[in-house]
Design brief:
With 259 residues, this protein is α/β, with parallel strands linked by helices. Helix content is 37%, strand content 10%. The chain has a 5-stranded parallel beta sheet, with helices on both faces. The protein is globular and about 55 Å long. It binds zinc ion.
């Protein structure tokens, strides 16, 4: 079964077979997404995706439980724009640590840090090892920004160039047009590549292999990195469908791994 933690009763959670359960802890953000998207974009996309998985998918490998979502993450890079909320790294570490500890306390053995914001990725990877060591949890980090998760889904859909999918971009705007078109202002959407100092170099780029520790207004004037003007609701719907199917396969593989 697939459920949200907060919709189960105490006794239902107590009775779950912990050897056949995965808990996914959704990590998102509340931060500026250019002039055309709401600050809750990362949170809304992740929450919508979870709703769609619960409504439309089956999990044959036991129980897939989505813990209450963190709506705020580590977004201090975006504080130079209005509306961004952020935890300091130490605070955020402590919050994830405490909730993971509580999940382990109730007997669960597998935890997926289920992340929709690129600024959380380093924290998720760092804390995953501490949670393994301190609580004995098997911890998996799912991240769609610094992996090839969207690559197949974007094939045949992505029309923008090399920097078109990054932040408040063709991908995120398409997903928002599908999820909450009432909150998207396409007349305000602008495309912007990263600043020249992070573009055209051989090694120091926004994709690595050498990453600079930047804040958002070092990289973009508009707050956008990418090409939201290429976004459509139809692309967003296809991308949600793609993500739901692929995530079920990913969670199924996690169910089969024991270490
Ligand atoms: Zn985002």
């Amino acid at each position: 079964m697939i459920k949200r933690w907060e919709e189960l009763t105490r006794d239902e959670i107590g009775a779950l077979d912990k050897d056949k359960s995965i808990v996914a802890l959704p990590l998102s953000a509340t931060e500026q997404h250019g002039a055309h998207l709401p600050v809750g974009t990362d949170a809304i996309i992740l929450s919508t995706l979870i709703d769609k998985i619960i409504e439309g998918e089956k999990f044959e490998k036991g129980n897939l439980i989505f813990a209450p979502q963190f709506l705020i993450g580590k977004s201090n890079e975006h504080m130079c724009f209005p509306g961004t909320l952020t935890f300091k790294a130490k605070t955020y570490y402590s919050m994830i640590y405490d909730i993971a500890g509580a999940i382990a306390h109730h007997g669960f053995k597998k935890l997926v840090l289920f992340n929709s914001h690129g600024g959380n990725t380093d924290m998720a990877n760092l804390i995953s090892r501490d949670l393994r060591i301190d609580f004995g949890l098997q911890v998996f980090v799912f991240d769609w920004w610094f992996t090839d998760f969207w690559a197949d889904g974007l094939k045949g859909l992505k029309e923008s160039g090399m920097y078109g999918v990054f932040h408040a971009c063709e991908l995120e705007t398409s997903l928002m047009l599908a999820a909450r078109p009432d909150l998207v202002y396409m007349d305000k959407a602008v495309d912007e590549d990263p600043a020249d100092c992070f573009k055209g170099d051989k090694y120091v780029t926004v994709f690595g292999p050498v990453n600079a520790g930047w804040k958002t207004n070092d990289v973009t004037k508009s707050g956008v990195i990418g090409a939201p003007t290429f976004a459509t609701a139809e692309k967003g719907k296809k991308l949600f469908d793609y993500a739901c199917k692929k995530l079920i396969n990913i969670f199924s593989e996690i169910a089969d791994i024991n270490y």
